[in-house]
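User: I'm preparing a small set of examples for a lab meeting where we compare how different chains pack in three dimensions. I only have the primary sequence for this one, and I'd like the structure in token form so I can line it up with the others. Please keep the answer compact; I'll paste it straight into my notes.
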Amino acid sequence: MAISKSQQKAVAKYMKENYDELKVRTGKGKKDEIKAHAAERGETLNGFINRAIAETMERDNAAPISEKAGAEKAADR
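Assistant: Understood. Below is the structure token output for the 77-residue chain.
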């Protein structure tokens, strides 16, 4: 069943008002590897990425400040 233009417009408006988009780049073939990993756990690619971000932020926020500073320096490399 085809989606009408008005429904497409409504969905686009909803997405714009309720979600931010991030673009993630990975090496060739890595997307398929990540997608397969997520599927093995019953998750979508988007769900897996959001969970990975949330868990990492939670872990980072629980780390002592000295560890956070070291992680920031490592991320800059």
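A couple of notes for your slides: The two ends are 50 Å apart (CA to CA). The mean pLDDT is 91.

User: Perfect, thanks.
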